[in-house]
Design a protein that fits this description.
Helices cover 11% and strands 30% of the residues. The chain is built from one helix and nine strands.
């Protein structure tokens, strides 16, 4: 192990690095470039402009998925209203101010329409629901020893997070 390295790395993973999140991808992960290779780092629960210590944990496309410790938070970061934020797989951008979120979401739609040949389409304003309410929910139920658990799926997982 490298003496400067505080934790062992899996073979092939790039070393942890301090990076700045450039933008959000279509799956709401912050995207930054690893300073050693330039490969994309996909970092959940980060926001554009944030300075983070990124740790790659797995290969993801041509880049790396991972986790991030926030070193310098965005001015657009807010406290997420849901107590299940980050443990359940829904509502991945509750920590972003509403105007910035709405602009990002509308931008995704505009880009998709442009790719489909409708670049001049006029978009209606995004309709938002208030915190603590939902338009839809995909409840998961799983048998466990002694009963069942009901809740929501963990991010990118089949694990059921009990929401009480």
């Amino acid at each position: 192990m490298n003496p400067r390295q505080t934790t062992p790395r899996r073979a092939g993973l790039p070393p942890p690095a301090e990076v700045t999140v450039a933008h959000l991808g279509s799956e709401a992960d912050g995207i930054a470039a690893h300073p050693d290779s330039g490969a994309a780092l996909f970092l959940p629960f980060t926001l554009p402009g944030e300075r983070v210590r990124a740790t790659a944990t797995h290969k993801r496309g041509e880049g790396w998925g991972g986790s991030a410790e926030i070193l310098g938070a965005s001015a657009e970061r807010v406290t997420a209203p849901c107590p299940h934020f980050t443990t359940c797989g829904g509502c991945t951008l509750q920590h972003w101010v509403d105007d910035a979120y709405a602009a990002w979401k509308s931008g995704l739609l505009a880009a998709a329409l442009a790719r489909a040949g409708f670049g001049d389409a006029t978009l209606a304003p995004l309709v938002r629901t208030v915190p603590g309410s939902r338009r839809r929910m995909d409840l998961a139920i799983r048998r466990i020893p002694g009963g069942v658990t009901m809740g929501l799926h963990a991010p990118r997982s089949t694990e059921v997070i009990d929401i009480g």
